[in-house]
Write a structure and sequence with these properties.
The structure is a homodimer. Chain A is built from nine helices and no strands. The relative contact order of chain A is 0.10.
Chain lengths: ~200, ~200
């Protein structure tokens, strides 16, 4: 009886190999044979799952979105209080590269960025992800204002834009070593404290 | 009498060709022959100025720093008031991709980013540029506080970190089309207005 291979899992393992290459070197050196070598499988095996380099990169972009999404959800699950600003903090922590795994994802995201700007479909994927995050931040900030946790004159949509852009900039600073995970989070905390009543 | 060729200028023209490729496609497809084709010269001509792809990329990183530096200076030169917050705004405007030229530079910068994270020397160039910008922002904010333009309880070093990260995040948003130059500048203006007394 032949061994049953989980197609999705095998594709995932190959994408993980691409991940390690992209995080170290960008997308420049990514090729089907390079990925096969990194994954320790034959090029034919890679081609069984991905017909072309383009298909492999497209799958990786989707996987990246899923991983960021899962990380944000995991941060949210750790919030035990009813405090709306704790939820805002968890959302921002979910998009910051605070550990090795999220750091690798952020580097892969950076490697895809120029490609996303030039590719309308990939660009729309990026924008939809950003929009969703900003919308949820706005909603949580509006709730925080409604229950009197932040000042009545705070504009939730504006603050959501500021906090999201701040997290984006801090993320880059962590990657180059200008911030640690802790110092970046403390910048976020000071911003949130300033909004608090 | 042989025509005298300006070595620096010719190198610059070749780097400009690399620029256009990198802004469109990232660094993936950059090669000496591809750059020669884009610049409309022979590969031998390119090799006369750059011995290798690495040398070409190293020169481009330096040129990128110089261009950002020149743009910040140009923005500062346009400040006609003594208002310290106008200087802060000019510094931030200098690092935002507000027109085609700065947009192209920002895309080239993004293309270099993963490379910079992995390469200690390039990373230090990035960090030194960031440090200089944050230091100048801190100094100008401290001055603004000393002359009573911003509240006495504002921490210049913290605000400089926030504004610099904010500009970084807004820059990415402009590149993917989530912000226009105008809407990004208005986010900056609102942040500065909040600091004002």
């Amino acid at each position: 009886m032949p061994r049953i291979v989980d197609h999705g899992q095998r594709r995932g393992e190959i994408a993980e190999a691409l991940w390690r290459i992209a995080a170290r070197e960008g997308l420049e050196t990514v090729s089907l044979s390079r990925v096969a070598q990194e994954a320790g499988v034959s090029k034919g095996r890679v081609q069984h799952y991905f017909a072309s380099r383009e298909e492999l990169l497209g799958f990786t972009a989707t996987l990246l979105q899923q991983r960021v999404d899962a990380r944000v959800r995991a941060q949210l699950a750790r919030v035990t209080s009813d405090e709306p600003l704790d939820v805002v903090r968890a959302l921002l922590a979910g998009i910051l590269p605070l550990d090795d795994e999220s750091r690798t994802d952020a580097l892969v995201g950076s490697a895809f960025f120029v490609r996303a700007v030039a590719d309308p479909q990939l660009c729309e994927t990026y924008r939809a992800g950003n929009r969703l995050m900003r919308d949820v931040l706005t909603e949580k900030l509006a709730h925080a204002r409604d229950v009197g946790r932040i000042a009545a004159d705070v504009d939730p949509a504006h603050e959501s834009t500021v906090l999201f852009a701040l997290a984006g900039g801090l993320g880059e600073s962590i990657l180059v070593g200008d911030h640690t995970a802790g110092s970046a989070l403390s910048v976020v905390d000071r911003q949130l404290a300033r909004l608090s009543t």
